[in-house]
Amino acid sequence: MAWLLVQLKVRLLVNALRSSNSAKATFITSTIFAGLTAIATFLLLSAFRGQAASVYVTSVIFTLFAFGWLILPIFVFGLDSTLDPATLALYPLRTRPLATGLLAASATGAWPLANVLGLLGVTVGLASGASGLIIAVIAVPLQVLFCITLARLVTTGMAGLLRSRRGKDLAVFLFIPLFVLYEVFTQVVPAEAAGRKLSAASFHGLDSWLRWLPPGLAAHAIQDASDGHLGTALLRLALLAAVIVGLGWLWVSMLSRALVTSDTTTQSSRVRNTALPLARFGLRGAVIARFWVYQRREPASFANWAIAAVVMAAISIRALITQGGHPAFVLASAIFGAAFIGYFHSNAAGLTGPPFVLEAMALTGRRELRSYFAGQNLVLAVIGVPLLTLVSFGLAVLAKRPEFGFLGVAVGLAGLGAALALSNLLTVALPYPMDKKAGRPMRRASQGYGLSGFLGVFGCLIGVGLACVPMIVAVVSTSATPATIRMPVLIVVGAVYGYLLALAGVRIAAVAVESKMPELCQAAIRSKL
Amino acid sequence: MGEPAIVVRGLRKRFGAKEAVAGIDLEIAAGSLAGLVGPNGAGKTTSLSMMTGLLRPDEGQILIDGLSVWADPPAVKAIIGVVPDQPWLFDRLSGSELLEYAGRLRGLAADEARSRATQLLDVLDLTADAKRLVADYSTGMRKKAALGCALIHNPSVLFLDEPLEGVDPISADVIRRLLTRYTSSGSTVLFSSHVMELVEQVCDHVSIIDKGTIVATGTTEQVRGGKTLQQAFVDLVGPRAGGEEGLSWLGSSSS
Question: Is residue A379 part of a domain?
């Protein structure tokens, strides 16, 4: 059974190479990335040789890998058929051989191998002496086995949920903290390390907690064996092995239950009100009501806002930490934030998907089309303006120059107006179908439309940047003016300028879309969301 | 035969080398419940998409209640309702929110839209699920919700693409009764299907499409020609089954 499931996993991996170009590219990129991760991890763990803090870093890295194994299967659930026990429920398989097979299938592939090879960096960095080396060679596979068992337990326990609409929503929401963690790791950590505020010893506090978790046990076992405390090391490894056996037992019993338990798709959520709001405001009110509801209930919309906020912060935070306060960083952050808000809505038909046709069938005149674009823009502005304000002032406070927040808001308002106008125009000029594949929380341009998606991003970035030039000139040229006059005037000018741009966008898009509605409908129908 | 509600002349559509619709002529009288039947890939969905203004034809003319679909798309969209093959619904709205939204999009006052939505949900047997998100609806419920959206503005012509595919018998009966009631008041329905029994039961007019052309059209009696519609269809389109010689083991319990 184990060999059969390993063969199944290998076949699935090989088939990825034979399928669509995008699947092939994803597989190759993933394999290359796994190789690079293995090399980087090995080098990182080796780099702390002879340092007392080596064990702290190892403990943290081991825990990070376990965390990755815990989280990632939730995203790739729909991609790896061997993760879902329901796919095998129809076959006459007994639980124990099935469990062994699923475990073996999990251990097959580039990533598990990359984990083992990368973590073996401890043989250079942390281990010393023969007993240290032997314990390291045992501890690393045990750590990877712990990760795999943990991942299997979580995915089996959550299989019903992950198959359901709610589970897919959950995966999108989980993506947000991960994206924040990634940005912190790539922006703040290098900045802190460059400023010598972060060193290996900084992980000591973290390790005092992590050392009692299974990955910490593995790291400290190697340290103990290297220090000559072989007994303690073996005790730690025995404890780790017991945890793995316990998790395995829990998983097997969960697996036998999961094979005969219905998923949670039958339990559905109810909304409180039966009526849509804004009844008095006609078609525009209806569009606003629907779009507003979607910003709350559609996880991808929520994720877009979170990404815009994180991108805004990430653009400037490193510079603000390392180089101190300069208004340019806050302005750049506002421009990027506005551009991303525009990009995320620059293909309304493809983004809405097939239901767009329901709207298209009713948008029968120029007035109705203006209401459609204006209604959506209004919702985006209601969320976008406070977001831009909050992040601008947050960054300004971080730079210890709160007054920069006003400048960020002024440029942000102009940028948001330009972004909304561009998103309306791009919706009409460049409609393309979008996909939301299993394991990917974000919507992307469908295969063959990558260039359209690319043009959308750069169209918004360049367009918003250019549209903000007059505001930047105004900010720079008024630097000598007293702040009490300068700030309110700049904010009013930014708001009026942004409003006029957005208004122009709505009017032009409403005229242009009349002759292009069938193309927009086709892009919407071909979207798979 | 009454005034034609749907007139199609010389309709053509090509996708690359494949001619999906190769010159269709069709006339459906007002008040008809008409069926467009054909095998998979015959051009049913492409034809309906062009008739409803969603896909630009290469050639041809389509008139709905005398209005040209491609000369004045907004005017035609205002008087038709469409239920697509895979219902296109805002699935993060509840059933009642969805129908109200469809009504308000069509220019109904909010009160009127809510009132009609409530009545339609009742007739479609969705009242108990009115507050549930459409994302959690079954296939049959989604089809019924899509039908509600298509009817809320009381269109004069209704287009349905495979309306009963994947629908349970109870929901199918609800949909069937609603369509019969709708056409009895003089409104017109054109639906595509490959379920011959259904078409034979409910339709007074049938057109058979194969390889992008209409191979037979007329009243159901005329097209059947004394046979069952299924038999008439197979005779016109031709059987497409493969050889079954290789399945000698099938049916034995000795594995």
Answer: yes
Residue B254 DSSP one-character state: -
Q: Which residues contact A450 (CB under 8 A, 6 or more apart)?
A: none
pTM of the model: 0.75
Taking chain B, what is the end-to-end CA distance rounded to the nearest angstrom? Answer: 59
Query: B54 by DSSP, 3-state: which?
Result: coil
Q: Using one digit for the tens of pLDDT, what is the confidence trace for B30-73? A: 999 999 998 888 899 999 999 998 888 999 999 999 999 988 88
Residue A162 structure tokens: 């992950």
pLDDT digits (tens, 9 = 90+) for A291-325: 999 998 888 888 888 888 888 888 887 777 666 66
Q: Are residues A400 and A303 in the same domain?
A: yes
**What is the domain count for chain B?**
2
Q: Which domain holds residue B103?
A: 91-149
Pairing verdict, β A434-435 and B59-64 = unpaired
Q: What are phi and psi of B157, to 5 degrees?
A: -130, 135
From residue A175, give the alpha-carbon distance in Å to each of A69, A71, A102, A309, A439: 14, 9, 26, 14, 10
Instruction: Identify from A276, A278, A515 which residue to disrupt to test chain B contact, counting B C-beta atoms within 10 A and taking the largest count.
Output: A276
Cα four-point dihedral sign A221, A222, A228, A230: positive
User: What is d(CA B28, CA B22) in angstroms, rounded to the nearest whole number?
Assistant: 19
How distant is the Cα of B122 from the closest Cα of chain A, in angstroms? 14
Minimal Cα distance from A355: which residue of B? B88
Same domain flag for B100 and B186 = no
Give me the helices (H) in A19-53, please: 21-46
